[in-house]
Design a protein that fits this description.
By secondary structure, the chain is mainly alpha-helical. It is about 85% helix and about 0% strand.
Length: about 80
Amino acid sequence: MDNLLYYSPILIAVMVFLIQQRIVVTPEQLERKHREILKDVEEKFVTLHSFNDLKEQFSEMKEKIDKIYDCIIAVK
């Protein structure tokens, strides 16, 4: 117990430093940052489902263009 009282000012100084430098965060701060990250990701990136749908549409368009090209070549 005496050792704890002897080192308590140093421990308090270290804890204050860690909190001021934001090395240690509270769960509330962590949750807030998590929501910010999710919001940024939602704005900047597309979902995998949307990407696959778009890729499928491009494949369908390519097939249709190929058919049109084949028809044009067959007429000549």
